[in-house]
Amino acid sequence: MISPQKLDEVVALVKTYLTEEADAGFPRLSLCPSSYTIKFLDCFATLGAADRGALLQSLARIQGGRFFIHQREIMEQVRQVAMSDPTTQSYRAAMQSPVYTMGMRHIGLRMAKAMLSDAMSVAMMAQTRAELDFTPRDDLPAALVPDPDFERIFPGEGALVTTDDQQSLQGYARHGEEEASRR
Questions:
Q1: pLDDT tens digits, residue range 46-71?
Q2: How many structural domains are present in the chain?
Q3: What is 79-119 written as a DSSP string?
Q4: Phi/psi at 105 (nearest 5 deg)?
Q5: CA 78 to CA 64: how far, in whole Å?
Q6: Does some domain include residue 3?
Q7: Does residue 90 form part of some domain?
């Protein structure tokens, strides 16, 4: 178990890492095909230097605290930061705002494809957009999607089950059936 006195050291280490990543433009994170990650990166890019530093400190406190998951008093501190820190609250409010919940950029690729292939969804989307006071982002991150035409984009498939995997699964199934027949 980690000593609670080490919390500040762990938070400083996490903050250093996050700051280095942010200063480099989040090279690893920007290759993550997650709509939430894209929202985070877009939101972070709009912040000034002071707000970026405060957000990184808040995130470091929350993430660093997770190393102390079995220590109730530290987890309570983490919960307080996550729920009442003004920086965290502002970040959470921004991520839930229409700017980051509208537009093809901030939804999953499967959902975007489904919406664009459904006439009623397209009509409802046009009606909603006509009432907005901003233009939602439909551009996709170039690092993840080199061809922005939704007609030529296809969501990836999950990993294929190999022959070895199939044999293992069949073995587990047989074992389960044998256990059930004994009861």
A1: 999 999 999 999 999 888 888 887 88
A2: 1
A3: HHHHHH-HHHHHHHHHHTSHHHHSSGGGS-HHHHHHHHT-H
A4: -65, -35
A5: 9
A6: yes
A7: yes
Asked, for residue 150, whether it belongs to a domain, the answer is: no
And the tokens for 135?
Answer: 């233009």
Integer angstrom CA distances of residue 178 from 25, 28, 181, 183 = 55, 47, 5, 9
- Counting as low any pLDDT under 70, the low residues of the chain are 1-4, 156-183
**Helix, coil or strand: residue 155:** coil
Contacts of 175 (CB under 8 A, 6+ apart): none
Output the pTM of the full model. Answer: 0.75
The tens digit of pLDDT for each residue in 108-122 reads: 888 888 898 899 999
Residue 107 counted as domain residue: no
Residue ranges making up the domain that contains 46: 1-101
